[in-house]
Task: inverse folding
């Protein structure tokens, strides 16, 4: 196991549709050699079952073993924490990750983060990320957006968060769902400054 991971990224999967974005993001981060702190909400666990057919164990240590095996992570590279596990590293500004991504992000999670309401570890981790000046990326999945949603996004954008709705482009003529997923995940990885080869860069000739 490496003594020092190049980056530590917190990834939170909440109950919005689009769980495949989050799963692919975790996979790519693990492959890039990053350490991943994974947080899954109760609704997120349900959506993983509905959209990806994954029966994720409820207990954090069992979920950690499940995802470690799924993504081929090294020992200690992928950690899973419980929703009320306030002793987790992400709960304190004394040990913040390099960045955090909520992917997908419900508008409920968006609202709680916007007002600083830490009812579970996901909210608290996001609050810590903002107050410590680290990058917070919110892959919001909802349509249409209400005025409340937009105001919450504006509040968080002013606080330094990156608002990145799950809006994949189609100018590259995707031939399947996997390419659409990779388009969004590539944008997240770019903002995390994690190298990848998921998509062809705009203006560059095809390989």
Result:
């Amino acid at each position: 196991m490496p003594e020092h991971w190049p980056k530590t990224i917190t990834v939170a999967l909440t109950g919005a549709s689009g769980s495949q974005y989050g799963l692919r993001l975790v996979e790519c981060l693990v492959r890039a050699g990053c350490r991943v702190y994974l947080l899954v909400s109760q609704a997120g666990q349900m959506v993983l079952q509905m959209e990806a057919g994954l029966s994720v164990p409820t207990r954090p240590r069992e979920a950690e073993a499940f995802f470690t095996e799924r993504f081929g992570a090294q020992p200690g590279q992928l950690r899973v924490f419980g929703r009320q596990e306030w002793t987790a590293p992400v709960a304190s500004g004394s040990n913040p990750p390099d960045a955090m991504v909520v992917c997908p992000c419900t508008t409920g999670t968006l609202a709680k983060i916007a007002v600083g309401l830490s009812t579970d570890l996901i909210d608290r981790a996001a609050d810590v990320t903002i107050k410590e000046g680290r990058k917070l990326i919110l892959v919001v999945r909802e349509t249409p957006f209400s005025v409340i949603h937009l105001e919450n996004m504006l509040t968080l954008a002013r606080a330094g968060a990156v608002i990145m709705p799950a809006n994949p482009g189609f100018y590259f003529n995707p031939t399947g769902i996997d390419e659409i997923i990779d388009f969004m995940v590539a944008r997240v990885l770019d903002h995390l400054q994690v190298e990848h080869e998921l998509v062809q860069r705009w203006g560059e000739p095809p390989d």
About this structure: Residues 8-192 form a domain with the Rossmann fold fold (CATH 3.40.50.1950). The mean pLDDT is 95. The first helix runs from residue 19 to 31. The chain has one domain: 8-192.
